[in-house]
Amino acid sequence: MFPVREDEPKYAFLQNPSQSSQHKDSKDKNRYGKAIELTIDGDALRDQSLNINNDGAVGDNPNRYKQHGFYFTADNCIACHACEAACSEKNDNVGHIAFRSVGFIEGGTYPDYRRQNISMACNHCDDPVCLKGCPTRAYTKFAEYGAVLQDPDICFGCGYCTWVCPYNAPQLDPVEGTVSKCNMCVDRLEVGLKPACVSACLGNALEFGVIETTPKDRTQLDAHIPGFPDPSITHPNIRFQQTKTLNREMKRVDSTAIKYHRDDNAEKYQPVLDDKHGKTKYWGLEKLLASHENAHVIFTLTSQAVMGAFVLLVVGGSLFGLPAITALQQSSAFIPLLITMFVLMGVGLYKLNMHLGKPHRFYRGFNNLRHSPLSREIAGVSAFFTGLAGYTFFSLFDNGFTHFMAGASALLGMIGFAVGSYYMYKLYRIKARPFWDHWQTASTFYGSMFSLGALLMAMVSVIFLENSFALIKVFAGFIAFGLIIEAVGLIFHAKDLKKGSGEGQAAFYEQTTSFGKTYYLRNTLLVFNILLALIINVSSLSGGIGIIVGILFSLSIVLMAYLGRIIFYALVIPTTMPGAFFWKNKGFIDHARESGLADMQQLGVAHERHHKFDVKELIQTIKSNFFSS
Fold first, then answer.
1. Of 326, 388, 584, 609, which has the most beta carbons under 10 Å away?
2. For residue 467, what is the domain's CATH number?
3. What is the DSSP code string of 482-504?
4. DSSP assignment, residue 194?
5. Are residues 47 and 131 in the same domain?
6. pLDDT at position 223 over 80
7. Domain contains 331
8. Is 217 part of any domain?
9. How far apart are CA 161 and CA 181, in angstroms?
């Protein structure tokens, strides 16, 4: 398992339960009402080996099947980062990955300056959202110590667990393309040793043991501390002690526009907006265009456009027989439209798949249909794409069998649309990301389906039909409907964020300052496109002027959709711990990329480059492997 040195210091060992204070005040249930004993005598889960390093032995810790957790005493932490170093050394982490990190918040000014340090890793939660969110089932919560463990060999690098975790515990390596995280040092626990970070702590700030028991020299077991996200999201297994008085307002030293204000009624610090960046409006285009999430932007926009067009064809034409849709289905533009839809959907799926850290493992996305909304989205979108492919293929022929198969494919596509589009929205309802956790996400996604789907149909009609003015008039109505749905959602979203607090309000602040000019451009284009769509719906387009207006109208909608979607991804502010140093400080990361420091491994920053498909590098690798063999 794990080698125990002969000169291992006493403080590195777990306390003997029969002699420690933990035995005297042990409890049956934790503060969330869940049993601390994770199994019962005779359970098949008991007395099994964890096969650490292929060792079949079973640890003899009498508390092996009780939920364990970390205890952090902020009064004692001196921010020496010994816990970080010990963790990284023990897990052989590269410079830009840290399972445990130390940040801090500060308040007041000299001579009344206060600082609180925070050391944080995975909290091995009772309700691990990473486990439920992961589409590959790379996560498992073990009965042994209640550890939530992750297998990088199963992971395909989608990074969804890094979205849903409020504590930034899962670490996506942008070079290797896989996620890894704190494993509670279960190999050390099995031989009676505390986790490496706890053993290395110089100030006795970190302790470890059965949850809800009071470690030696501790008096508090709080579930909250200034700077710590809402524990109700995941029920984390960490307890805090903070006896020193802090200032009423404590600020983050990273670039996040958040500070923490003491709420005397709630008897805890609440996250509130810190308008540290001023009120000046910027374009922020260099940050938007360089976003790691551009693949998601392309996928969501193309898939929603195709889904919208498909639904209009099947429901509007085949089911309800709308004259304009029926006329399109019977025209020479129908097959080109289907082929265009198929190609666009394929491009979107390709971009999304290549965004994965391990694209060749894409099939593992179906592994967690029971819990993961991402798995369900993947299944739904795959069914939709299959139905679209069948509908396109069988529509090329004209006989009874192909008509039947086209209908069956359309049914499969509609089922895939219902499941895929719903979970495409549902996967963004993340408590750890308040900017996304709003019904506006649904109104934007479904609004885009109508507007972009109708636009796609109109553009194909113009290209392949000589007289498409009547069709364009109808499609303009659908475009206006979709844009209005999106606009209503955005209005309520901005209103709710502005009057809200914490990370949601901070996201609205960034939206109107750091990306203010781009944000208002998007809004202006949205209003302009709604008005123009309504005008076209009433008066239609014709002649050369009509073609010019139509081209400008189409470009305006596409630009508006792209700006809105990239803002959606770039603006989200997660409920993470304060990041003071390097890889936990987004401001430093941006600076490092701009200045070239990101190429220096020792600074703890790495480019997010695993999703780029380098053909030259692939060829070189093949040549090297071929000649070496």
1. 388
2. 1.20.1630.10
3. HHHHHHHHHHHHHHHHHHS-HHH
4. P
5. yes
6. yes
7. yes
8. yes
9. 11
Instruction: Report which residue type is found at 222.
Output: D
pLDDT in tens, 121-156: 999 999 999 999 999 999 999 999 999 999 999 999
**Residues 129, 427: contact at Cβ < 8 Å?**
no
Amino acid symbol at 415: I
Q: Are residues 520 and 597 in the same domain?
A: no
Give the whole-angstrom CA distance, residue 275 versus residue 257. Answer: 6
DSSP string, 113-126: -EEEEEEE-----S
* pLDDT tens-digit series, residues 597-608: 777 766 666 655
Spatial distance between the Cα atoms of 289 and 570, rounded to a whole number of angstroms = 9
How many other C-beta atoms are found inside a 10 Å radius of the C-beta of residue 521?
15
Q: Are residues 319 and 459 in the same domain?
A: yes
Please indicate, yes or no, whether residues 606 and 528 belong to a single structural domain of this protein: no
Which range of residues forms the domain containing residue 496?
285-571
pLDDT digits (tens, 9 = 90+) for 557-591: 999 999 999 999 998 999 988 876 655 677 777 77
Which residue has tokens 């206006």? 480
CATH number at residue 76: 3.30.70.20
As to burial, measured by CB atoms within 10 angstroms (0-12 exposed, 13-18 middle, 19+ buried), residue 431 is middle
Query: Are 317 and 352 in a shared domain?
Result: yes
CA 49/CA 45 separation, integer angstroms: 10
Q: Does 2 reside within a domain?
A: no
Q: Is residue 361 part of a domain?
A: yes
Task: Encode pLDDT of 50-59 as tens digits.
Answer: 998 888 999 8
How far is the C-alpha of 559 from the C-alpha of 307, rounded, in Å?
19
> Among residues 573, 581, 600, 589, which one has the least CA distance to residue 501?
573
Query: In this model, does residue 25 exceed pLDDT 80?
Result: no
Condensed to tens digits (0 to 9), the pLDDT of residues 326-335 reads 999 999 999 9
- CA nearest neighbour of 132 among 431, 358, 375, 422: 375
d(CA 216, CA 595) in angstroms, rounded, equals: 47
**Domain tally, the chain:** 3
Helices (H), 1-121: 21-24, 82-91
Q: What is the DSSP string of 235-288?
A: --SEEEE--S---SEEEESSSSSEEEEEETTTTEEEEEE--TT-S-----HHHH
> Residue 287 and residue 514: Cα distance in Å, rounded?
10
